[in-house]
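Run DUF1648 domain-containing protein through structure prediction, thanks.
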Amino acid sequence: MTTAAPTRTRQPLAVWMVAVVLPLIVSAAFVAVQFAWLPSLPDPIAVHWGADGPDGFGPAWSTIALTAGLALGLTAMFAAFLALGRGPAPTATHKLLAVLSLSVAVFIGIAVTASLGVQRGLDDARDAPQLGGWLGVALGGALLVAVAAWFALPKAVRRDADATPAEPLPLVPGERSVWIATTRLSTGATVTIAAAIGFTIAVTVFAIVLSDGLVWPLVAVPVLLLAMCAIGTVWRARVDAGGLTVRSAPFGWPRVRIPVDEVAAVTTGHVEPLSDFGGWGWRWAPGGGFGVVSRSGEAIQVTRRDGRRFVVTVDDAETGAALLAAYAGIAR
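Sure, done. The structure for DUF1648 domain-containing protein is below.
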């Protein structure tokens, strides 16, 4: 079965306000405050704190560049995810992306600006106090903004509204059939993920150079992203008398197994990675459960008896879903 791709739908104005306009305004305000504080800051300023106090130093402009650069880069990333998605809008994932864009801007703005504020009037940045309390304020402020923004946005539409119940495949008594399919990331997804990893590497290198190597453990971030990309590129799905199994083809892990006696319902439908799950690979979406999302297109959607949901995008999803529905019916 080939499903038609949904048309690209305009996001409500409220989504763009929360995801783009407000984060840029918030970030610009924090950058303006940082500029105003420049004359009262020591030279160099503290840019990193250890257990015993400041242990990394750099020019004051670097903090302003960090705030502005992250604001533009992260806001552009969230805006791209929202703009490229297809289907009804806003989904719960659209709302989550918009809320994350604003809350991250608030957290970064408060945390970075506070790191300058505690150094105002000091002759030596090594005398700066710890930032623990301010980090708590930044986290609390981001959470409050996130909750307010979520409820201010329009109600989310259901992503599975067009799901089609699977017709059980006719099986002769005693017959045992197996369905196997392989799915891999699309070219567009691969390019997007590669660009995101490249951006992360650039930011990591900038931070390490700026701190004279003090924050070298940040290398773990792009390494982790590369590892996640490696295990999430190709997936293999299998339906047999025991149920549905989906695993990473290169390594066999991550792996999900849904026993046939836990299957409450099986449907097929069209899935859009950005609109429905906010990206590709092993994903989770509010109200949509977990899923292996390698590309846009048809997918098997399974609801367990306890209400949990699982989705896998794969070719010939109709046949796989029909066989799983047949085995689930036999097991009841």
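The two ends are 27 Å apart (CA to CA).
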